[in-house]
Design goal:
alpha/beta, Rossmann fold, 22% strand, binds benzoic acid
């Protein structure tokens, strides 16, 4: 299920160019999920489907062929309004839950979607994530008398564990860790792909100026290695099991 946030318009080609690393970094998460043949798994916020296809491939050669022939079963909807009822063996989510600011509604919907004993395995931005980009954008907006919109959910491990437990999950694993991330198209490419939801209403000329200024500031705040800008990503990774 692709994530469908109202103020973010995803373009597949730009996403592939500027954010291919999203699926690449998420691949180890599939080991934590340990998908089994015949399991029914919901990929919540599946992006362009690259990881979803890998999960499908963990079935059998026959299932893979069948999945390929049919294409992935993807539906577009709001992850904060899931309407599944005890249908899934597991719910998986990589780099998507921070876009869904009503985290309580997401976790309640996932709990309802899972069979008893079902797993919820995920990774997303945690406390401190992309602090340099947020500072750079806030500064560029503030200089024009504008205020950034609050659009992302980056919780601590303690807060997210408490939320999961409140909804009937046990949490065998949850950890917050920095994941410095080289950006293939620098700060400007990242901002162009992801900054939109933080921006208040403004003219396109103003938008271009804000993004250029924020990109220049972010380049001064972030480290560089081998000519690449390294973004200050912080991940929150967890495995939770629904008790029923
Ligand atoms: C993230 O993956 O942490 C992220 C990506 C885009 C915007 C905000 C956070």
């Amino acid at each position: 299920m692709p994530n469908n946030t109202p103020s973010q318009h995803w373009q597949a080609d730009a996403y592939a160019r500027n954010a291919r690393f999203v699926a690449d970094y998420g691949t180890p998460l599939i080991d934590l999920l340990a998908p089994q043949p015949h399991e029914r798994i919901l990929d919540l916020g599946c992006g362009d489907g690259v990881l979803t296809q890998k999960i499908a491939a963990a079935g059998s050669a026959e299932l893979v062929a069948a999945a390929r022939a049919l294409g992935l079963n993807a539906v577009q909807g709001d992850g904060q309004k899931l309407a599944f009822n005890r249908e899934f063996d597991a719910v998986f989510s990589n780099a998507a839950l921070h876009w869904m600011t009503d985290a309580e509604a997401v976790v309640a919907g996932v709990a309802q979607a899972l069979k008893p004993g079902g797993r919820f395995v995920g990774e997303f931005g945690g406390s401190g994530n992309i602090a340099a980009f947020q500072t750079a954008l806030r500064q560029a907006l503030h200089a024009r008398g504008l205020q950034a919109r609050e659009c992302w959910y980056f919780p601590t491990a303690e807060a997210y564990r408490a939320l999961l437990e409140q909804h009937g999950f046990s949490v065998p694993h949850i950890a917050l860790f920095p994941r410095p991330t080289p950006l293939p198209t620098g700060a400007a490419g990242w901002l162009d792909t992801f900054a939109e939801p933080m921006l208040p209403a403004m003219s396109s000329t103003e938008r271009t100026a804000v993004l250029a200024e924020a990109a220049a500031t972010a380049e001064t705040l972030l480290p560089h290695e081998n000519g690449q800008t390294i973004a200050d990503y912080v991940r929150l990774r967890f495995v939770a099991v629904y008790g029923g």
